[in-house]
Design brief:
The structure holds three protein chains of three kinds. Chain A is an alpha/beta fold. Helices cover about 30% and strands about 20% of the residues of chain A. In chain A, strands 6-7-8-3-9-10-12-11 form an eight-stranded mixed β-sheet, with helices on both faces. In chain A, strands 2-1-4-5 form a four-stranded antiparallel β-sheet. Chain A is globular. By secondary structure, chain B is mainly alpha-helical. Chain B is built from 13 helices and no strands. Chain C has 14 helices and twelve strands. Classes of the chains: A alpha/beta, B mainly alpha, C alpha/beta. The interface between A and C is large, with 53 and 58 residues.
């Protein structure tokens, strides 16, 4: 599987030492099996289809996308939790894709995850001290009194009362549980933390506490973050670089400010215009690009540019040809867009006539079908 | 927000004067709830009393002065050779050989409880191991294990018991082996399903992401979450095993006379039900009381371990009371509770 | 007279752990054709409040009044309430999948909704109406789609179907409980757009319950901010966002990452929301409030006017001059705290400053 997205390397490659993780043309298909005992594969969920990106040391890459964009699958592939279909994941100079559990073990210390659900990510039947101490136990790095001391230091560092060592997760609130998850992730002093929607289940006031904590920890430990979220303001707040995904592909990526201030992909523009802003005047002044329909099924994605059925600017070329991810004229070198007809500054997409309406009336296959698991 | 969520809020986020609750474990909470369940507590007391009587059976026999297998041909049989009715000498009367039925019923309790506990223990350990492996590893391991589970569940157990009895000769060991063999499959099936759902939890993903081995994940992360459903299943499996033992002994392929078991007591009693009611009534009553107590305790344990179902029922009861009779909730109500 | 007038509503539940006081005296009005946004975090009582209006809180102890179109909703029996629910007040829940029955066709569920309130409507007419409704909420091919089951709809379409069902009896009031929280941003935009358009066309009143200030900024006319079962502040949308008076409202606004603010550090509210079983004394917000004064520990503030329009009200002991995000307002806050903070409040303020997340947030 070759994708045109992989063909164009970043225009100004940073020094190899700056890059902690380089993902090259990563593909992840989930087979769909038919019924029966000896089930045959009847199709594939194309969760991630040819994604290349780089994470620089000490920085945060924000990964944005809606349900079914493949952002979580991508994160799990990078974390080595699921085998990839093809491509490479180079971590600190080593290709870690396809390593066995044993061979992967040393890298597990360097790559840690924090999860979205503060209720689901902690085993309700285990005490907090034991949960945070898990990494020490698994990697045999500390035991007995030394482990307990290390755990309590971690608890203190993330803003938990170390005396609550013996409590169960149910005795903590959502924000505190997220701190517990963070303490566990920090235990082995990782280099990379993959945070999958770490604040989206939290209340606004608590969300800000956790975002501040994440920023502090990044400073103190020199962490690199892959930060996945659907909230664009949150991503803008935490990220240096932003990658926007749609249906398993990258549609736009680059440094935060150019992407937010001068989006070139119509999907990015629509996403930004749709994001609710806590400012009534800005909300009233904003021209919303209302996309028609829903994200199609990744089992049978649209031909050409995957966004074309919903795109207000789509033309015949978009049906036929997959646009390469490349730097468009006038953009900074690292700002790349996969679009045949990138948005021009000042262009009003709300009034553009669209072939999406025509498509909607013929009934696209994706609208009604529910997305299959693992693709989110 | 649901009612349970509210209660949860109340339980956990204590600000102001900080609630100092040191590690209220889920088990402590479950035990506290169980203690409030009068039916469950009564059942537990009945079971403990039974166990005590069974353990002390030799002591009681010595005290009464009636060993279990000694026929009292003079005092214990009427002039026509029939069993005698309950009296101050024979509390439950005697059997057709003039043996003390009370003592024999107590010795029968030994057999019943022994078979119930031991075969349930074996079946549970086996069932949990098989179910957890099938659920966790999936793939061909799952296929093989799940199919053998189905095969066992489909097997006509009485036929197998009869066959085994013929081959090995009926005995207590044979009874335990047969019952264990049939009890693991039901547990394995439930455990497999539970494991499949627990496997999808983020904390399992978290454990994998720090590099924990499958063994560690199964023992430390999955097993503790299986204890609740397994405990309920096991409590409910004990009475099944007891009835199973009684059935086998009744059919003559279980525990053999002169060793007393409720099953073979009933088997012998059936010829005398017209003349000697006590012969049939006392073993039956004990069997019934035991299985009932275990079943009620099982229900209590389930409610205590899964507070949500309990509270849901409580809320429904309240709602039922509050609602004027038979009023159907409108469509919009769905999803509110 | 307003369409809905809620007066001193109180709701509590008895639980094993104690009495949960979910709503502790809330009053507000909703007018026809207006949207009121009820904002609060989990445990603020916002959902219980609206469920109580519809008699959906079994086992709760309820007091107060909720006069809807001349009748007190809280005094209705189950049968009378059933007739109000759906017909005059419709509800849209967060998760349409749990609100739509999985085993019945979407169209059938809408027709049934219509016919359950008006038996005189024929089946054919009700079916025709459901096609029309699905069309109105923007579902393509409504004539075929009525025969689909809920699982054949995507999340956004299910929420559209829920809205169609809510509209089926032309209610006077729609209560939407986090209707877009489970949806992606682009779909959320579609749904909010739809709600606004439908409301404008039909002059329906809308109560929008949400934790998302962005949603409020988009579609509300008035905003009620709830904290620990009480109204902290009520005002027009612009006043809430640009002239907040209550420190909780201000804290919420400052917690949101905002590109225009450009601050590297967010200023969160420290601590956790309180337990509704054990509500703090005085002002329930005082253990988290940077402007805590002695009075706040003992006396519970009530809503008092803080703006020129008389509508803007806040339940806070800070003076009227403390409203707003300007330097002067901050000065006014600091000044009054300086005068009114004694030993007791100073201790609370110290505790707040000691919290790990306090760094960077405003501590007077």
């Amino acid at each position: 599987m070759t994708s045109p997205q992989a063909a164009t390397p970043a225009a100004a490659p940073p020094g190899e030492d700056d890059v902690l993780v380089r993902v090259e043309n990563l593909v992840k298909y989930f087979p769909i099996r038919g019924p029966g005992l000896l089930a045959r594969t009847v199709g594939h969920v194309q969760a991630v289809d040819g994604v290349s990106l780089e994470l620089r040391r000490g920085q945060t890459l924000g990964l944005v996308g809606e349900t079914g964009s493949g952002k979580t699958t991508l994160a799990r592939c990078i974390a080595g939790l699921i085998p990839i279909t093809s491509g490479r994941v180079i971590f600190d100079g080593h290709d870690i894709a396809g390593l066995s559990r044993r061979a992967m073990r040393p890298y597990r210390r360097d790559i840690q995850m924090i999860f979205q659900d503060p209720y689901g990510s902690l085993n309700p039947r285990r005490r907090v001290g034991s949960i945070i101490g898990d990494p020490f136990a698994v990697h045999h790095t500390a035991s007995g009194a030394a482990r307990k001391r290390a755990i309590q230091e971690l608890m203190e560092r993330v803003g938990l009362n170390p005396e609550h060592y013996n409590r169960f997760p149910a005795e903590f609130s959502g924000g505190q549980r997220q701190r517990i998850g963070l303490a566990r992730a920090l235990a082995l002093r990782p280099k990379l933390i993959i945070a999958d929607e770490p604040v989206s289940a939290l209340d606004v006031s608590i969300q800000a506490q956790i975002l501040n904590l994440l920023a502090d920890l990044q400073n103190d430990f020199g962490l690199t973050y892959l930060f996945i979220a659907h909230d664009l303001e949150v991503v803008r707040h935490v990220s240096n670089q932003v990658t926007v995904m749609y249906l398993g592909r990258i549609c736009e990526q680059g440094p935060k400010d150019p992407v937010y201030e001068k989006p070139r992909h119509p999907y990015t523009a629509a996403l930004l215009s749709a994001a609710p802003a806590a400012d009534p005047d800005a909300a009233a002044a904003r021209q919303r690009i209302i996309l028609t329909g829903d994200i199609p099924s990744p089992i049978n994605p649209p031909s050409g540019c995957r966004f074309h059925p919903r795109c207000p600017k789509a033309q015949d070329l978009c049906h036929e040809q997959d646009p390469p991810l490349e730097t468009k004229p006038g953009d900074v070198p690292e700002h790349q867009t996969a679009c045949h007809f990138p948005v021009q500054p000042g262009e009003d997409l709300t009034t553009t006539s669209t072939i999406a309406a025509a498509d909607a009336s013929t009934g696209t296959g994706g609208e009604g079908s529910s997305l299959t698991g693992g693709a989110a | 927000m649901s009612l349970t969520e509210l209660e949860f809020q109340g339980e956990t986020t204590g600000s102001g004067p900080v609630q100092v609750i040191q590690g209220r474990s889920p088990w402590v909470l479950a035990w506290r709830r169980l203690r409030q369940d009068k039916v469950a507590v009564a059942s537990l007391i009945v079971i403990l009393l039974l166990a005590l009587l069974a353990i002390l059976a030799p002591v009681i026999a010595a005290w009464v002065g009636h060993p279990p297998n000694t026929p009292y041909t003079n005092q214990g049989l009427s002039s026509t050779g029939l069993p005698v009715a309950p009296s101050s000498t024979f509390f439950f009367g005697t059997d057709d050989l003039g043996r003390d039925l009370f003592i024999r019923v107590l010795y029968g309790a030994q057999v019943s409880l022994l078979v119930g506990f031991v075969s349930t223990l074996i079946g549970t350990v086996l069932g949990v191991a098989v179910g957890m492996m099938a659920g966790y590893f999936g793939g061909w391991i799952d296929t093989v294990l799940a199919r053998s589970t189905d095969a066992v569940l489909a097997f006509p157990y009485v036929v197998l018991a009869l066959a085994l009895a013929v081959v090995f000769g009926p005995s207590l060991l044979e009874v335990i082996v047969v019952i264990s063999f049939f009890s693991w499959a039901a547990i394995a099936r439930v455990v497999r399903g539970q494991t499949l759902s627990i496997k999808e939890k983020e904390y399992i993903e978290a454990a994998r992401s720090i590099g924990a081995s499958p063994m560690r994940i199964m023992v430390l992360d999955i097993l503790p979450n299986l204890i609740a459903p397994v405990l309920v299943l096991a409590t409910l499996a004990i009475p099944t095993a007891i009835v199973f033992e009684a059935t086998l002994s009744f059919l003559g392929v279980g525990v053999q006379p002169p060793t007393a078991s409720w099953g073979n007591l009933l088997s012998q009693a059936q010829a005398f039900y017209q003349t000697s009611w006590w012969y049939l009534i006392f073993p039956t009553a004990f069997l019934l009381l035991t299985t009932l107590a275990f079943n009620l305790l099982g229900d209590g344990v389930r409610d205590a371990l899964d507070p949500r179902t309990e509270r849901l029922f409580a809320a429904q009861r309240k709602r039922g009371r509050a609602r004027s009779k038979g009023a159907k909730p409108a469509a919009t109500v769905e999803g509110a509770s | 007279m307003s369409l809905l007038e809620v007066r001193d509503l109180r709701v509590s539940f008895r639980t094993a752990d104690g009495v949960v006081r979910a709503v502790r005296g809330v009053s507000f009005d909703v007018d026809a054709g207006r949207t009121i946004g009820i904002v609060g975090e989990s445990g603020s009582g916002k959902t219980v409040l609206t469920q109580t209006l519809l008699g959906l809180t079994p086992g709760a102890e309820v007091s107060g009044q909720a006069v809807f179109d001349g009748t007190d909703l809280l005094a209705l029996d189950e049968e009378q309430m059933r007739r109000v629910r759906g017909a005059q007040i419709a509800v849209i829940f967060q998760d349409p999948l749990t609100s739509l029955h999985p085993l019945y066709k979407v169209g059938w569920q809408i027709s049934e909704m219509i016919r359950s309130h008006d038996k005189s409507v024929s089946k054919a007419a009700a079916a025709e109406k459901s096609v029309e409704l699905l069309d109105r909420v923007g579902i393509p091919h409504p004539r075929q789609r009525v025969n689909d089951y809920p699982h054949q709809f995507s999340g956004g379409m299910r929420q559209r179907a829920m809205i169609a069902m809510a509209l089926s009896l032309s209610p006077k009031l729609i209560i939407a409980d986090e209707p877009t929280t489970a949806l992606d941003a682009t779909v959320q935009a579609q749904i909010l757009d739809l709600l606004l358009r439908l409301q404008r066309d039909s002059d329906t009143a809308l109560i929008m319950i949400t934790h998302d200030l962005g949603v409020v900024a988009d579609i509300a006319d008035e905003v009620l901010v709830m904290y620990a079962g009480r109204a902290a502040e009520i005002a027009s949308k612009r006043d809430i966002f640009y002239r907040p008076h209550h420190p909780y409202t201000k804290g919420l606004l400052e917690s949101i990452p905002n590109s225009s603010a450009g601050a590297a550090r967010l200023r969160p509210i420290t601590g956790q929301p309180p337990s509704l079983i054990n509500v703090p004394s005085g002002c329930a917000f005082h253990p988290r409030c940077a402007y805590v004064m002695d009075k706040c520990l003992t006396d519970e503030p009530v809503l008092t006017p803080v703006g020129e329009d008389g509508f803007h009200q806040s339940a806070c002991w800070l003076p009227v001059s403390a409203a707003g995000l300007s330097e002067e307002a901050e000065e006014a806050r600091k000044r009054s705290v300086g005068e009114a903070r004694g030993e007791a409040a100073a201790k609370v303020a110290e505790e707040i400053a000691d919290r790990p997340e306090a760094e960077g947030s405003v501590i007077a």
